[in-house]
Structures are given as structure tokens and as C-alpha cells.
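>> received
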Amino acid sequence: MISMTRIMINASLNVLNNFEVRQLVQSNTTFDLVVVEPSFSDVLFGLAAQFKAPLMGLSTCGADWYLNTLVGLESSMILEPLMPMGARPVKHLWDRMYNWYYTTEEWLLVQLVFLPKLRMVHDHFFGHLEQTFSEIRNSFSLILLNQHFSLFRARSSVPGMVEVAGFHIPKEDPKLPKDLQQFIDEAEHGVIFFALGVELQSKDLPVETQKMFLETFKLMPQRVIWKFEGEPPCAVSDNVYLAKLLPQQAILAHPNVKLFISHGGMLSIIEAAYYGKPVLGMPIFFDQFRNLRVLVEDGAALQLSINSVAGEEFKEAMDRLVNEPSYRENAMALLKRFRDQPMHPLDVAIYWTEYIVRYRGASHMRVYPAYIKLVDYYSVDKFLMVGIRLTLVVVIVFFTLSKWRCLLAHLARLAERVWPIHMVMSCVIRIYKYFSLKLNF
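>> returned
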């Protein structure tokens, strides 16, 4: 979390220090809407107040507890799996304890470390505005989430959160260049597609790892398309196609593609699910581990470590994913349920964006207060009242028992003092009972 937050803070500073952006801020320009990445980009939220526009977010990594607070959602830590846990349901006591610990740790980091820094930067750039930093953070009209319950499990929500995963995928399958089309069409045993995204390019892998991949691909009956940005470290076999830039969606859309080797980025996972391809994942960063775990749990993927993968292990994983029908069937099941939506995700995103503009922020959709205090977030006030009542009951019970103990001790001492009188009275009573019985006869 710390590294990701620093990345987002530095990115926000780069935006605000940009010459064109500074000119725009200093002008009297107004806009109908300001859209930002909401995850730890709080410094940029001031642009909405500066331009007198509603504030909307587009979360590229989906939702988490931090985004929930921006729209007033009291997320249930009992029901929602956190990022390190993948997507499995939270069923056990240990899972709930982990959720509580993880969220509390992050909440404290945000409150004590990051928000004070963000507030200082905000005041430097937007201190002249009437709205305070906290008020601006509470003014989100809507957050579009790059996720969908059919892939990343169901979760609680509010009107200010809308799922639009797959909105970047065109409604019609994109076309392939002629050379790639021919390369894939003529593959008798199908094609394996290998792309690692932009965080870590294939050319940046250790040379030995690059050689291992190429040597392993030689042993595969399938053809391989590899997004490789540099010069290969060794000879490339005839069944391998290398290119710096590749149309990923067009390749995945082809029915002859049997396997997608990926780093597990959010967009790549969504595309793999949309086109029904099994995935061999080698995650590198942040949400990629969670994303791949979702497919692994659904039986549509296998996961390896890119830092320690060996040739034999790599080949075995590819053979399993290509040849075992269950992986293909599970991937097609994901395709079916992900595509079963009343509207294309892009149309959903367009509709709600225009909705916010039409109603100037649509304040009627907001849940107040948008930023929930820790006491409310954990229902501390409710637990405190229950605790007070239980404490009163315990105190009353102990007080009553102590009084009874004192009373019994007093009676015991009193009995010791009047013991002779007690003996005389007992004798009198026994004599009375005896003669009473005699008289009756």
C-alpha cells in the first residue's frame, strides 16, 4: 500500500505541476464534469472545486475500503474479501480477524500519514478555495468501477458506485493484420499468446529467463505469439512470432488461440474472461496477484512465479492449460456469465456520466456523510452501549452477591451469640410436640 500510495501522490504532483494544467487552473475556465482516478489521488479532487464542476471517479483497479469511504459505503469486512485474500468468501474467524487487522492498519496509515501530507499539498495548490480538503473529498457524485460481480464476486454497494468492467472492449471483435491472421489461421495445434503488459516488459526479464522461454516454446506443438520489445537473446524457432506491438484484443478474440500467458493486469484478466481464454499467470505487482487468484479459484488459470519459474514447470503448466478440457470449459463459463448483461459496459458508463452532468452532480444519489468516522465505521458506539449494559449487569450481580455474603456472615455471628437461647427454645418446641401427640391419642 505504501509504495502504491507514493506512486499515486507523485503522479498527482506531476499533473498539478504541468505547465498547461497550471495555466488552466489559473484561468476562469469551467467544466461540466471532472473525472479522476480516485485511489489516493485526493490532491487532484480540488480540480472539481476549482472548475466548479461535479466530481466523478474512474477506478481502474475496482473498489476497496478506501473508495467505499468516498461514497459513504459502510463496507462489511465480514462479507468482502480484501485484496491479499483474492476473491474467496470470508467464512472463518481467521478471515474476519485478518480483514479487521488489514483494514485497521491501512486506516491508521491513511489517517496518520498520508492524509496529512495530501492535505498540505492540497492547501498549497487549492488553499484559496472556499471548500476545505475534507469537504471536497466528500463531494463525489459517482465512481465507475473497473470490475463486475460475475468475475470479482458480489459486494455491497450504493447508488454512487457503478460497475463497468469491460467498457474498453469494442462491441465488435477487432480485425487482425494480415500476417498475424495467417499465422494464427494456419496453426494446426492452436496458438499461445504471451504478453506481460507495460509495468515489466519482456525485454527487461533476465536473459536466462528469456532464453528459457524461447527454448521451451520450441518444444510446444502450438505456435507462440510473444510481445517482445527488444532483440531476442538467442535464435527464435519457426513457431514463435515476436513483435513490439500487438493487437491484444484482436488476438484473444480469435478462436484458434488456446492460451493467454499474462502478468495478470486488470484489463488483461477482463479481456481473458470476455474472450474465454485460459490463463497462465505470472503476477508482478499490486492487484495482479488478486486478479489471477480469481481465475485460479474459478478453475480457468494456473499461476507461476516469474522470478523462479523453470523450463519444465513452465511447459507442464502450458500443457495442462491447453490439453485439459476443464480449463477451457471454465473459461467459457466465465465468458458466458460475464457477457450476460443488459447493456454493454461502455453504454452503462456513458449513461451514468451523462446522468451526473444532467443533474449537476446528482446529489440525491449520495450517502451522507460521505466520509465515515472510525467510530461509525466499526459501530464502536453500538458496541460501547452494549458493553456498558453488560458491565452494569456484572456490577449489580457482584454487588448483590457481596451484600448476601455480608448478611450471611452477620447471621452466623448472631447465631453464635444466641446459641443457649436457641437450645432452650428447641427443647421447649420438642416437649410441646411430644405432649401434643400424646393428647391426641
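>> The mean pLDDT is 86.
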